[in-house]
Amino acid sequence: MDEKAEGKKLSGDGSDGSSRIIVNRGSRANSTPLKQSGQGFPLAFIVQRGRSASQPDPTMLKMIGKPKSFALTETFAHGNKHTQSIVQKPSYQGEVIYVDPWKRPKCGMCADPIQEQDDSYVPCECSFRMCIGCLEYVRKYEKNLCPGCTKELRDKELWLSTYPFQDDGQPRLSEIDDTISLVVERVQDNSSKGKPPLSPIRNSNLEKIPSNNLQIVPAANESTMVSSAGGYGYGSAAWEAPPTGSAERSKPVADYRKRALSRKIKYSASQIGPYRILVAARLICTIGFLQFRVTTPTEDGYWLWLVSVMCELWFFFSWMLDSISKITPVRRETYKDRLQAVYDDGGESFPQVDVFITTADSEKEPPLVTACTILSVLSTDYPANRLACYLSDDGASKLMFDTMAEISGFAQLWLPFCKRFSIEPRNPDAYFSESIDFTEGKVQPDFVKSRRKVKREFEEFKVRVNALVADSKRPPTDGWQMKDGTFWPGNNRRNHDGIIQVFLHPDGDLHDVEGGIMPPLVYVSREKRPGIEHNKKAGAMNALLRASGLITSGTFLLNLDCDHFVNNSQAIREALCFFLDPIKGKKVGYVQFPQRFDGIDKNDRYANRNTVFFDINMKGLDGQQGPVYVGTGCMFRRKALYGFHPQERESSKTKREGRSLLQIVCNIFCFCCNLQKTEQLESLSSLSDEDQSKLIENAEPCKPINPLRMGTSKHFIETAMPGWTRTHPLNPHTMLSEVILTISADYEDNTDWGKEIGWMYGSVTEDILTGMKIHTLGWCSVYCDPQLAAFKGSAPLNITDRLHQVERWAAGAVEIFLSSRNPLWAEWGTRLKLRQRIAYANNAFYPFTSLAIFAYCLLGPLALMTDLFFVPTLSMLASIWFAALIFTVVVGSLLELQWSGVTFDAWWRNEQFWVISGISAHLAAVVQGILKLIAGVEINFTLTSKGSDNKEVDGLHSFKFTWLLLFPAFVLLFNVVGIIMGIARAATKGKQWGSLAEKLVFSFWTLIHLYPFSKGMLGRRDRLPTVVLVWCVLLLITVSLLWTTFA
């Protein structure tokens, strides 16, 4: 009898008390083929109230009432078909147990479908389902304890021998009742515990069950089942039939630890190709036109022609240096999801990150600004136990010390609020000042209430800080005192001991209001003594570098100014995507972020945003060896600052690095000059631990203890060695004693600090030298510009502060250019690439362009006053060269804006301020540098104000007199006078108006570029300040007298 006939004959509804078997022929399309051994396959049970087996519900579990029957569903082999059956016994007052015929049971551990096996069995009486792979894993690694009930799993052979079937293969229904009752009990227990109710039960030879009390009928859902003679096997799409011996429990996925965390994106040929063509065309046209200018002097006004040609040659050389770094720009892309998969989800530990914040004057750098920066760092999206914040107070201010105590209190409320509600930005002052809908995207019901509470606490925090500021303006006659009555160590800011104070403990014993740990917060003020050079900001950074090496010893360091707060809580993770990249991360020495600013007027009158540099020049440098270090918003690898190379050299190779070009030439051609073959002692890292300890203990203060010469602190040198790990932490007293030693005023004597290690000395702009030193060691740098600005700072609003800031940068560049560290003749034989060397040379050379700008701004009015001209009549060929040059300049500039995304307004503001600073701040920096070289006059370091109590418009229109204003004011008035005299001369003497127009072009070019300066000078009163007017008149009279004397 065939299967259909047999099924029809034995069909019944079970109303007569007999049991029935409902057979469902077919299987799911993705099921694996079953062996035709005649043996049964596992039974899966699911509890459902109030439904009979003939009315299966697609849902897996639904409790709706008490049933009067139970059903067992089993998948078994029948011929070449897959079949499912439901064994039903009426009059059973209990739970209905059936399996969903459309779903295969899944493993309770890995959630993968359970594969039917001939020898499968119930591992535990609690009915917890496990696949073969998970079962082997539990037996091997989980001490053979059930994941569901933590009881020991059954012995396989013993269970098979006691399975409730008769010797002839027929089941004992009474024993099935007992088994079902046990299953129901375990399922209910598991359901109450939130555990999966599935359970595999052994069955064999179900085909042999007699039909005297059982009936077989076709299943109602037979048409929905699709038969399949094959399976999917194993792979990333499905893991159904793994290879023999495989103990894996889930589908294979890529190992994120071996995948790139970042990607370099080059600009397409359609974007950058035309720009490169225009740069080459501009180069050719400029050479052609300059050839005409050099070979064709004017008959009258030869000296004007000579000055103009020299200026134009200087402009051409400066443009070439600047353009070389722009022809290969790149962009970067990070994959923070992969970083999260490895560290947050993969169990790896994030590296330690130490954040350095520097301040030097609590008057120019308000404590509230610094406090908000610290709070933004502490609340950044990074594990608190892997983050530390250090503040270097070079002014030893009691006000800043007390503010740190207030910060540690408010941080306990601010940190959990930011992390719970994903606040951006995490500067409380910036966040509460935003005029936006703060509820957008927030779904937590208690957000508004929490925000109101935190805002109220922040207002009280500001009041307390303002009270401290008010008290600091009335210092006591005998000096500040601490709460315990002792005198504040920094009462004399120029002569005091080193100060170290840990406000939030590294061991996490101080928690926030929700019980979470908080990052360490450390106050550091290095020792200062009269007569000892402190090396300004670079010296303070090196003191922090040594102090942090003893306390937390972070693998990476983030350097921020006191006014640069964390605007993007993912900033540290963005940088780590480059450092931890498995492909090229080991060669990254530092990651530089662009500087973005808040509070600038919408027109950006003085080009504070510096968009051209950060969005054009820095992207171009990123396509070479990397961007330059700009002093803030930069994340370093500690190993790079210690002077180590990205890869250890082979012991058989010796390479002299850091030699000058003269030494290299002398070594090649001069045989009488014998350079030392062995430059320094053997590296300390190659010695044993015992020899290191003896060498450090017996070393004299003036004797180098190793090639790097890191000082005399044994514990600090140990932390600096490659491969060092903290196995025996120092007790707090010993640790702080060592920290006080490392921040002492004379610790760097006879060491390589500032020369080969840490931040470099020799310039007020330590950033350029430090970045160049890291590049010479073979490290590369990366420019990271995320869509949401990583950090934001405050910029000077008025013209005086802006010029002082630019003057300090230019003075540092002049110092480098006139020193032995000039990239043109220093650091040859190192790993500094040629184009990167040219970029550093351009950064040291650019202030000298001010001489040419200043002279060129005076040529126009001089030509108008004297009726002389410095440009001869253009020939046909010269006219073509000139027209082509103008075309390439205009089109090339537009293409540059197109691929960089810089707006025309930002580009034009940058061009205007380049002329303003060129005839004021840059010119003063060149004079100061020359005086220092000749007479030894030190360059004055003027700190830029980081905040003000005035409103934005008041700061924009405020006027502060400085000598830097005189030269641009003089040039402005001199051009106005020249225009008036030229027009008057042409009107009275009847000269040709065509030649007058040619001369007026140069004067109007100057006035257009000086327009923002004139607006800043006039201020809100729309008149020139008296002091500036008087000095300008005196300068005009002096120039007139000199002209009448020598003309």
In short:
By secondary structure, this protein is of the alpha/beta class.
What does this structure look like?
This protein has 1047 residues and is an alpha/beta fold. The protein contains 31 helices and 19 strands. Helix 23 (849-866) packs antiparallel against helix 29.
Distance between the termini: 131 Å
Strand order of the largest sheet: 11-12-10-9-13-17-15-18
Helix content: 40-55%
Largest sheet: 8 strands, mixed
Give the structural class.
alpha/beta
- Oligomeric state of the chains in view: single chain
**C-alpha Rg (nearest Å):** 40 Å
The rough form would be described as globular
Tally of DSSP helical segments:
31
Summed over residues and divided by their number, the pLDDT gives a mean of 75
**Poorly predicted tracts of residues:** 1-102, 164-177, 195-225, 648-658, 664-687, 695-705, 948-954
What fraction of the residues are assigned to beta strands by DSSP? Answer: 5-15%
Total beta-strand segments: 19
Write the layout of secondary structure elements.
Layout: H1 3-9, E1 19-25, E2 46-48, E3 69-78, E4 81-90, E5 96-98, H2 132-141, H3 156-161, H4 173-192, E6 214-218, E7 262-266, H5 269-295, H6 302-324, E8 330-334, H7 336-343, E9 353-359, H8 367-378, E10 387-393, H9 398-421, H10 428-433, H11 447-472, E11 499-504, E12 521-525, H12 536-551, E13 556-561, E14 565-566, H13 571-579, E15 588-592, E16 596-598, H14 611-622, E17 634-637, H15 638-641, H16 661-669, H17 689-697, H18 714-720, H19 732-742, H20 766-776, E18 780-783, E19 791-794, H21 799-817, H22 834-845, H23 849-866, H24 876-900, H25 904-918, H26 921-935, H27 952-957, H28 966-989, H29 993-1009, H30 1011-1018, H31 1026-1046
Helix pairs in contact: 5-6, 5-24, 6-22, 6-23, 8-9, 9-11, 12-18, 12-19, 21-22, 21-26, 23-28, 23-29, 28-29, 28-31
